[in-house]
Write the structure tokens for this entry.
Amino acid sequence: MNLIFLVGTAGSGKTSLTASFSRWLETQREDVMVVNLDPGASSLPYAANVDVREYIKVEELMEEHSLGPNGGLMLACDMILDIVENLTQDIEDFTPDICLVDTPGQMELFAFRNTGAEIAERLTDAEKGVCYLFDAVFCRDPLNYVMNMFLASAVNTRFQLPQFQVLSKIDLLKETELNEIVGWSEDQFRLEEAVDLRLSGMNRILSQDMMEVIERLGVEFNPIPTSAKTHDGFNTLYGELQRVFTGGEKFTP
């Protein structure tokens, strides 16, 4: 079994990609299941095989502990540790070959709290990886693109798992915008040039400093352009997952 955690900033399209990519994998005759790990999700565009909301209800926590929405979500995410064995058993009961895990909408609740890495480590003994989503619309600005590179590097450092960079929602971009972002990922000089030409003052300095840190970390960035709406890039993402986890073979024999 292989677990893939989908991680990204709020609104980057984690849930949409989970829904669309899981259905697409089924058309490839893969035995796939979906786990919702977001206790604050109000509705989902997919039928979760395992859903953390069956164990933890944010509204009840807010009422019981007199918490606001953010406090309730933080407590709910921390409490996932208490039920990780239950979730593991639920997942293993399905015995899938590939499992997509939709993580909390507010990335920091999962990616940057100690509980997130521990949940990822303890959730089954499967082979695991992370898909980090770069929001294509957000990344049209070189500052935002560099910030996403920095966040992706932090996620990689935190989880220490094979990581796949995904440029989501490309159907919302003009062709010239997509080509520019792809160019930044292929040639760091072009990104540095965009930072110099389009940013100024503290934003330019901040971007340059973050790029130096990212270079020292040695994380590679070639985000796979994808669209949950058109399925663009799904073959490429699928191929990368196969390359890392199965040596290029199908997940389901």
